[in-house]
């Protein structure tokens, strides 16, 4: 059986995005032949960079701070310029997720920045692949998968006065798990294809 590695590279200032990251990793690890690891981008170190090099897919996650990715994630992105210069992540799969307090909260700014970051590295972006839930149709529910209606990546919302023990809600964690599973399956397919064509 093909073994592939999905690394979930994330920042979380107060634990909410960390819960979303854990859900992404659990979704990926639930797919046979796939292992998933969490990596705090605020503390990568030599071993962390090596795990990123070894990954078949990297799922990037950040809270939305002031309408974009956090300063800690940005520092990680800038630190990856050596990786970029050497093309070490080229042709790996990538995907992204973000969490913020506003229902909208300008989360798209974060996801867009993550997708551009992945594109700069020559990675192949995997979308969320779910229909929008909740208010997309009148009979929707806030417990729907993809309740926040994103396509580019997984979205989560945590009220600013609710701790990470209670937020983000289950629907958003299930959405994150779906993204992890989708990336894992895509990584398996890519590995199988590579084995066939020898590249
Ligand atoms: C510096 C800062 C900026 C923030 N900017 C936004 C924002 O632009 N939009 C929003 O909806 N929430 C914003 N928030 C709220 C966070 O996104 C929210 O608290 C989130 O759950 C934090 O995730 P974390 O616990 O993983 O850090 C901001 C919070 C901080 C600390």
From TrEMBL:
Assigned GO CC terms: membrane
Pfam family, one: FMN_red
Domain Flavodoxin-like, residue spans: 6-184
MF (Gene Ontology): FMN binding; NAD(P)H dehydrogenase (quinone) activity
The protein, known as: FMN reductase
Organism: Actinokineospora fastidiosa
């Amino acid at each position: 059986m093909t073994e592939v590695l999905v690394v979930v590279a994330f920042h979380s200032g107060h634990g909410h995005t960390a819960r979303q990251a854990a859900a992404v990793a659990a979704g990926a690890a639930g797919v046979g032949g796939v292992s998933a690891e969490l990596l705090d981008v605020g503390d990568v170190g030599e071993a962390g960079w090596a795990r990123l090099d070894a990954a078949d897919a990297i799922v990037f996650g950040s809270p939305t701070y002031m309408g974009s990715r956090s300063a800690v994630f940005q520092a990680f992105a800038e630190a990856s310029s050596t990786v970029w210069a050497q093309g070490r992540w080229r042709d790996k799969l990538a995907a992204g997720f973000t969490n913020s307090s506003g229902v909208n909260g300008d989360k798209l700014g974060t996801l867009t920045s993550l997708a551009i970051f992945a594109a700069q590295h020559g990675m192949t972006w995997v979308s969320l692949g779910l229909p929008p839930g909740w208010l997309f149709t009148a009979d929707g529910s806030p417990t729907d998968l993809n309740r926040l209606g994103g396509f580019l990546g997984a979205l989560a919302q945590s009220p600013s006065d609710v701790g990470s023990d209670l937020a983000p809600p289950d629907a958003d964690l299930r959405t994150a798990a779906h993204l992890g599973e989708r990336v894992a399956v895509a990584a398996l397919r890519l590995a199988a294809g590579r084995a066939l064509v020898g590249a």
